[in-house]
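Exam revision sheet. Question 4 asks you to relate a sequence to its structure. Input first:
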Amino acid sequence: MGKIYRVIPDETAEINSLIRVIDESGEDYAFSVNRFYAIELPKPIEEALLSVAN
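Answer key, structure tokens:
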């Protein structure tokens, strides 16, 4: 709870009701879509978060 994860497009995962997310280690994993809530961030916030994530 309280974390924001980046989602990677994955058509195969979507077909199986999964989403592929990148965790804190930089690895990506597929999880059930029911485990996450999608949010839209304002562009400046998204850019700021991505700049410190890399």
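Marking note for examiners. The beta strands are 6-8, 18-22, 28-32.
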